Protein: P-loop NTPase
Organism: Candidatus Undinarchaeum marinum
Amino acid sequence: MTRYIVVLSGKGGVGKTTTAVNIGASLNDIGQKVVVIDANIITPNVALQLGLPPRPNNNLNGALKQDYSIFDAVSRHSSGLDVIPAGLSIFGAKNGFSGSMRDALSPLEEKYEIVIMDCGIGLWGSDIKTLNAADEVLIVTNPELPALIDSLKALKMAEKMSVPVRGIILNKVTGSSYELKDETVKGILNNYPIIAKIPFDKNVSKSLGARNPIVLNKPNSPAAHAFKRLAGDLVGEKYKTNIFWKTVNKFRGVS
C-alpha cells in the first residue's frame, strides 16, 4: 500500500523543503519507488532546489484540475528521483482546487510506494487538503522558540484533523548552549518524539547552489548522513556507514 507522507512546518526557513527533497532522494537511492510532490501551491520551491526547468503546463496545479494526467506532471531529476512540481504562476495558484487531494493523486499508487508531499506553511486551502491526504506527518523545526511555537500550531492542526504525527525533525542543530534542549523541545511539542536531528552543515547551502540534494552532492557530509539515516528509519532499513566515515563523523560529533 502506498504511503503518503506530508512534510510540514509552522514557518518558513526551517528547512522543510530541503528535508522533503533529501528524504525523497535518499529513499530513491536505496531502491524505493518514491515521488516528491511540491504541494506548496503558493510558494513552490522543490523544482527550484533541484534545478528542474519551469513547467507552466504539466504541473501539479493543472493535474489537480484534471487538465491532464497526474503522470504528465512528473519531472525526473538527473538522479532518477521523480518530482511533481507546482506551477510558479501566482495566477494559476489562485484558481483553487475543490476536490479531494488524495483522490486526485490516487493514480500514483500504480507506480509508487511512497509519496512525499512538501506542504505549504499557510495551513489553509490547498494546505489543508494536502494534510488531509496524509497517512503520516513529519514536523520540521529548529531548536529555537519562535520556530517551535509555529510548529506547535501546525502540529495541533494535524491532531485536529486526526492525521498521525510520526515525529519531530530538528533541523540546523549546532549543539550550542543557547539552543533549546531536547526535553524542552518535546515539552513544547506535546511530547512527540524527536526522530532525527540534522546538524547545521554549510554543505547544505553548497548543495542548494549546485541544485542537487546534499545526500547526492555531498554524500559524506554530516547532514547527508543524518538525512539518509532518517530515510532508512522511515522504511525500516538500518542506515550503514562505512568504517572510514564512521570514524570521520565521530570526530565531527555526528553519531
